[in-house]
Amino acid sequence: MKKMIVLAILLLSAPCLAAEVSLKWDAPNAASPESYKIYWGETSGTYTGSKDVGNVLEATIDGLENGKTYYFAATALYRDDIESGYSNEVSKLIPVVGVPGTLRITGVKVEGQLNFVVEQ
User: Fold this and answer.
1) pLDDT for 33-73, tens place per residue?
2) pLDDT for 63-111, tens place per residue?
3) Domain limits, the chain
4) List of residues 6+ apart from 33 with CB closer than 8 A
5) In whole angstroms, how far apart are CA 42 and each of 8, 31, 38, 51, 83?
6) How many CB atoms within 10 Å of residue 8?
7) Top-level class of domain 7-93
8) 43 exposed, middle or buried (CB, 10 Å; 0-12, 13-18, 19+)?
């Protein structure tokens, strides 16, 4: 029977220079794993970081850089160093914090009204 972990991003918190992402996943339907491992990276399918999070169904990954997109996947770890395949992949763009409230646009001639919005 195929064992599958479904991964989802729950919350993004970026109060300072480094951001964090909270992840939650479902346990596999078959055998109970001893722990789970979260993988992440800046390219889909290429994971440069990992963290064994123990036998829990949620974890927070911190130290992420603002302005970058990260891709996450999870695996289940079993006895005898057996590791499942990757879960589905989820991604999150970490927003840039501290964007200045004033934007200066020069060299543009506009007649009428210019509406400009900076989304954070």
Assistant:
1) 999 999 999 999 999 999 999 999 999 999 999 889 999 99
2) 999 889 999 999 999 999 899 898 888 999 888 866 555 555 555 455 5
3) 7-93
4) 27, 55, 76, 77, 78, 84
5) 17, 31, 14, 16, 22
6) 14
7) mainly beta
8) exposed
